[in-house]
Specification:
272 residues; alpha/beta; 2 domains; five-stranded parallel beta sheet; 10 helices; signal; DUF5694; DUF5694 domain-containing protein
């Protein structure tokens, strides 16, 4: 009797594990749009609190970025999406079209958009490019300025993790491709949401949620950016390449995983 009960118990847990690993109902449209959602560090000016040391004018660096663009272009996107506000879409398209005609042209403000996104588009023959960014300020430095926090232990410990990640990401011997591989790793992407938003939920005074209120603004920014994407004239025949700062990439990975409209592809199938 005891043996039979043990067998039933083991069978129950085995079925639960199996059930948890398989798709139990259809959650994607038949014509879901393939998306290669690629995260990067900012290769030009950025107001971000943390920056990656990168000389955008260095020819070797530019060649490395173009080599990565060639790998990503194998996805064959029909549409390029970048971190720029929609209000500048006409200007963005004009500049991109000029680059396609003259790849050696010089830019006034060189960034990952010109170095990587334009080259991916040129190599793949994409004719459309859009910006979906949305600007919203939030007080990220609240974790330093808020006095009498209810949790005074977590942040100092968290700072050690921040320093460790920054040291790894800025390792001088690391090439551009390896740095981008690190940034696009699922663990790094989860970390970026944590350090840019969720970290603030540990910052509050009794009876209040000051940090969470600020973090919500960053979540809102990314939701508006996703809304901007959903306003683009995309069809089932499109293939979308998205290039943004990796924290936005992390948020969008979650959106795409849940959305029935989009079919996210494995970044590392192309970033070999």
């Amino acid at each position: 009797m005891a043996t039979h009960s043990l067998y039933l118990l083991c069978s129950f847990f085995l079925s639960m594990v199996t059930f948890g690993q398989r798709t139990v109902f259809k959650d994607k449209f038949d014509d879901a749009i393939p998306v290669l959602n690629f995260g990067t560090f900012h290769m030009g000016y950025t107001p971000d609190a943390t920056k990656v040391a990168f000389d955008k004018t260095n020819k070797k660096n530019q060649q490395e970025v173009h080599a990565i663009a060639k790998l990503l272009a194998a996805f064959k996107p029909t549409v390029i999406v970048v971190e720029r506000v929609p209000e500048r879409n006409r200007e963005l398209l004009t500049e991109y079209q000029s680059y396609v005609k003259t790849p050696g042209m010089e830019f006034k403000n060189l960034s990952e958009i010109q170095l990587l996104a334009y080259e991916v588009g040129r190599l793949s023959g994409a004719t459309r490019i859009y910006g979906i960014d949305f600007h919203e300020n939030y007080n990220y430095m609240l974790f330093k300025t808020l006095r009498q926090k209810t949790d005074s232990i977590t942040i100092p410990q968290y700072n050690k993790l921040v320093e460790a990640f920054a040291k790894t990401r800025n390792e001088k011997t690391m090439g551009v491709k390896d740095r981008l591989k690190l940034i696009n790793h699922p663990q790094s992407l989860d970390y970026l949401i944590n350090v840019n938003a969720d970290l603030l939920t540990y910052v509050s005074t009794e009876g209040h949620a000051e940090g969470a209120d600020q973090a919500a603004k960053f979540y809102h920014r990314n939701l508006v950016m996703f809304s901007n994407l959903n306003q683009l004239p995309l069809t089932k025949d499109d293939r979308v390449f998205i290039l943004m700062g990796a924290t936005h990439t992390a948020f969008f990975n979650d959106f795409f995983r849940r959305s029935p409209k989009y079919l996210p592809v494995n970044t590392f199938a192309y970033l070999k």
